[in-house]
Design brief:
Blueprint: H1 14-37, H2 63-85, H3 91-111, H4 116-133, H5 148-175, H6 194-223, H7 232-240, H8 244-263, H9 287-310, H10 318-325, H11 327-345
Helix pairs in contact: 1-2, 1-5, 3-5, 4-9, 6-8, 6-10, 6-11, 9-10, 9-11
């Protein structure tokens, strides 16, 4: 007798509302664009003092050109979001709609922002403290860190994330696969199986850790007085600027700790709490606890790398720019490692019933087949 499984559902929690949320975001931002085009205050890429400039690709863009474009893109995005949320669009238009959605996601989340996304992720806990204690040093408060030019880039990033979720849901829905897990009735691609994901996920982890080393080494060296990749005059300037070297050291330490956590994406302790975490020892680590922060960091690294790509390389100051260029590779590798972790841990989909229960991880040194992807073959189906 043929066993039954839950029918595939093309609706549910996040896929349904993301399209409408993306449409609402586009409409609101398009309205702001219209406001700025009509001479309203607050245009986020206009002239500002040097201390409050952003590194956005749109910094300094002419309001008479950029603002009407924002209004037009926002209006078109509002319509596109509703169409995609309702699953509309003939097969011939599918590629066009997906192309427009992914173009907005990439532009808003990766191309337009600057380095502040990754800095904001690193500083988020401190900003909560500073809101109550005040910002140490010469800065007047949190407003000196979260000024409008930067807040606007965070808003654009949020819109990019919404458009990425909308595009992915629509892509899966129109392919006839589960919008939640991407699996369908076709056999799974080999690279999505747990054993395969573990193998290429290990490579991605090592690439991510190696890509971060130039940034970490140079910032630590600067703090201890070694002008690695910079001139002695530049080193003295940083020493004379309160908090500058300390901030660089803090970011380097955060990066090193992040590298340690990155290894958890392919080791047993990233799946089952180790014994030294006594109150959780032996229990499974919730996948989202690793996937959500790793995904945010991976995406936030890319705009910082692209921003460094636009900067001029000054003589004798290669360490100011070149380590940042590698952020693109760092973010891509971390994103790949996070995807591999997700593929190994997704188990049975609660919405469509496809997949197999996640096998219990074994010892890290027992080989690829004995790790998280080991055990009986899983009934995985095709994924995007």
């Amino acid at each position: 007798m043929r066993t039954s499984r839950p029918a595939l559902r093309w609706w549910g929690s996040w896929p349904a509302w993301t399209g409408y949320a993306a449409a609402a975001w586009s409409l609101l931002y398009g309205t702001l664009g219209l406001h700025w085009a009509m001479g309203g205050a607050g245009y986020p890429f206009g002239p500002v003092d040097e201390d409050h400039l952003s590194g956005s690709v749109l910094e300094g863009a002419d309001v008479d050109v950029a603002a009407p474009a924002m209004a037009a893109v926002g209006a078109a995005g509002a319509v596109l979001g509703v169409v995609m949320a309702r699953g509309r669009g003939r097969p011939a238009l599918r590629s066009v709609l997906l192309g427009l959605a992914w173009a907005q996601a990439i532009s808003f989340a990766l191309v337009i922002p600057d380095y502040f996304l990754i800095a904001f992720v690193a500083l988020a806990p401190l900003l909560l403290v500073f809101a109550f204690t005040g910002v140490p040093g010469a800065q007047g408060g949190v407003g000196d860190i979260l000024y409008w030019h930067r807040v606007n880039l965070l808003i654009l990033f949020a819109g990019g994330v919404l458009w990425a979720a909308t595009a992915l849901a629509y892509q899966r829905r129109t392919r006839g696969t589960c919008v939640h897990c991407g699996r369908g009735d076709r056999p799974a691609a080999h690279w999505t199986t747990p054993d395969s994901a573990l193998r290429w996920g290990r490579w991605a982890v090592w690439v991510a850790c190696v890509a971060s080393l130039p940034y970490e080494l140079t910032r630590v060296a600067w703090y201890f007085g070694y002008p690695l990749g910079i001139t002695e005059d530049f080193e003295r300037m940083m020493q004379d600027t309160p908090g500058m070297l300390e901030a660089g050291l803090g970011f380097a330490i955060a990066s090193l700790l992040g590298g340690v956590l990155t290894h958890g994406l392919v080791h047993r302790w990233g799946t089952v709490y180790p014994r030294w975490i006594w109150f959780k020892a032996g229990k499974r680590v919730p996948p989202a606890l690793a996937i959500v922060p790793a995904s945010i960091v991976a995406v936030a690294l890319v705009p910082a790398g692209l921003m460094n790509l636009r900067m001029d390389l000054e003589p004798g100051l290669w360490a100011v720019t070149l380590p940042g260029l590698i952020f693109v590779a760092w973010g891509a590798a971390l994103g790949a490692a996070t995807l591999a972790y997700h593929l190994r841990r997704r188990g049975i989909c609660r919405h469509c019933g496809l997949g197999a229960a996640e096998p219990l991880p074994r010892d890290d040194h027992a080989g690829a087949g004995a790790s998280v992807g080991g055990g009986p073959p899983a009934r995985h189906r095709a994924a995007d």
